[in-house]
Structure prediction request, 156 residues.
Amino acid sequence: MEYKGYMIIPGKWEIEYRYAAGEYATKFFKGLMEEKIYGVKCPSCRRVIVPPRKFCERCFVEPSEWIEVGPKGELVNFVIVYRKFHGLPDPPYAIGLIKLDGADDSILHFISEVDLSSPYRALKVLKPGVKLEAVWAEEKKGMILDIKYFKPIETG
Ligand SMILES: [Zn+2]
Prediction:
């Protein structure tokens, strides 16, 4: 065992798995394959929930209709990552909460096409309220990364 003032305990997890996505997630992921982002509307509070869920967690009722949202939206908040984490891209990269047009919830996704070489440069572009749009992957697989990332929309 390695010791650097604290114990380094070797280990390895490699878990293959499959799961049934369910009716709502399946429609959401199939939509992504056609470059459409779907949410559902709660008949009680009228919120548009994205990603869609089988029930509104505020009202405990089943959504009444499917609503297409985005692909543009607004940055709610974000983090810029400057350290390497296993299974994630090489830093730097940004992850943000994006409130898509027509939605009341936010989705979490990568934000790219921003100079992240220093936080000061990045903060000139990335701030809450900045408009973003989805950039689609060329090859769709019915996964969240069918949206490759979001990028700031040029304004002015
Ligand atoms: Zn509701």
The longest helix spans residues 22-33.
